[in-house]
Description:
- The chain has 219 residues and is mainly alpha-helical.
- The protein is 77% helix and 0% strand.
Amino acid sequence: MARKSQRRTVERQRESTPPADSESDQIGLERLVFFSDAVFAIAITLLSIEIRLPDLGLYVTNAELWQAILSIWPKYLAYVISFLVIGSLWIGHHRRFRFIIRYDRTLIFLNLFLLMAIAFVPFPTSLISDYGNRTSTVFYAMVIILINVISAVMWWYAEHNDRLIDPKLSREERRHQMMISLLITGVFALSIGLAFINDDLAKFSWVLAAFTMPLSRRL
């Protein structure tokens, strides 16, 4: 009798426990994604705040204004670079959360660490726009490397033993998602070495990150 009562208790507990794909779980996952999208959007918006003209006084001529606008081209370049970097990171984040169907506390904290690094990107962006020397270039690359390492760890945690993803997800797609982060990390790690040779060459090497997605498919 005691064993039967224990079995009934266990069965009732199983019935009362909501499944992993329950409505409440889906709402929680959607809130996590919406919050992440908001942080990405704010980080991109903050990039434009750093674009400012120097104080030209009240009686500036048209020629002086045009000269001032053109003279801050490093700020425009830094803005474009960081916009594309954050945009590509958002695309990767968006794609991965199409495969993640559950979440837990560890995933939430990993995602928070990722968003903390994303929100920090406007600061190194201001450094490369104001100084553009080796130190600012290396520091910027280190921040992007950190972001991609956190992203890779988050995907490994979600994918390992089908912990939080759809078990039907193909092995090729699993490797593809991991490979993207590793390749981008490699590009920016390479730029750190190039920065000791030429600062501008290191910055131009970041263009290689745009080819990581098709390359990861082939690998």
